[in-house]
Amino acid sequence: MNSWVHQSMKRDFQRTIAIVNNKGGVGKTTSALNIASGLAMRGRKVLLIDIDPQANASLALLGPDVLNLPTSIYDVLLEEDKPLRDIITPTLIKDSIWFLHIRT
Ligand SMILES: Nc1ncnc2c1ncn2[C@@H]1O[C@H](COP(=O)(O)OP(=O)(O)O)[C@@H](O)[C@H]1O
Ligand SMILES: [Mg+2]
User: Fold this and answer.
1) Range of 16-20, 41-45, 48-52, 93-97 with top mean pLDDT
2) 54: Cβ below 6 Å to ligand 1?
3) pLDDT band at 27 (very low <50, low <70, confident <90, very high)
4) What predicted TM-score, i.e. pTM, was given to this entire model?
5) Ligand 1 centre from 3 Cα, in Å?
6) Ligand 1 pocket, 27 CB below 6 A?
7) Rounded Cα–Cα distance for residues 87 and 84 (Å)
8) What's the structural domain count of the chain?
9) Is 87 inside any structural domain?
């Protein structure tokens, strides 16, 4: 691991990592899932946010049950009084990765 990343992870502060590329199929979702897992394995608490309507990360972390969840980040974006905390979902990797999912 790059030493700058290693040093910054030792400190106790919140960091946001955005994985963005216009092109599809270049490994954004794969990178996001693996970075989230790697950070969780190093003891960090991770909130993974999926705002891609393809919902591949949502499906990978929550399985097909994601299709039955009543609300998603879609509702937070559209409804003024819908707080983000209402849709944070624990994942199978309990106490390490929480999730903001999107409804497909
Ligand atoms: N480092 C990699 N080496 C080989 N295949 C990869 C790698 N990263 C992603 N893939 C594969 O490439 C495809 C697209 O990856 P994905 O993460 O879904 O891209 P994106 O989210 O940018 O659309 C998937 O089938 C994934 O398994
Ligand atoms: Mg993707």
Assistant:
1) 16-20
2) no
3) very high
4) 0.80
5) 26
6) yes
7) 6
8) 1
9) yes
